[in-house]
Known about the structure:
Elements: H1 11-18, E1 28-30, E2 36-43, H2 57-64, H3 73-81, E3 96-99, E4 105-108, E5 118-122
Antiparallel strand pairs: 1-2, 2-5, 3-4
Bound molecules: zinc ion (ZN).
Amino acid sequence: MEGTHDEFLSPSVTIDCNESLHIGVGTVLYSNLYRPMFKVVHDDVQCHDVLFPACSKAMYDFFYQNGTDHSNCLDNINRALGTNRNIIQPINFFMNTRVEENGKIVIAKPLSKAGDQLTLRALENCIIGISACSVSEADTNSGNCTSLEVTIDEIEGN
Ligand SMILES: [Zn+2]
């Protein structure tokens, strides 16, 4: 699938394949074509979200009436990938959500702290778009959006 955007990381397929909403060490992340894309090999937090779409102008308008000129993950990732998707379903690393018995979904403050790390092993060649989420209006980022540090290492024979 190299060179196309027809295959992409899919939280819903990842949920299906793993029969779980949980991502932690050993979890394989799958593409929309049910092929393994990444494996989690280190995870200081083991609390990530697979339910929510990337934040967007429309989302900020819906909840806070402030989408105009608000930075957002949808635009950031589209810009990074050179795409123009109208929705992106990412895996929201470090986002703390839980589903209650009545089906309500709660976004809680992240359990992560500065310096916590997550390591993914890519199982396919891939293009990665990453955005440090800009939601400061809710508990998503504890009201304090901070940067991410990303390193990519090439491993022989991987
Ligand atoms: Zn966001």
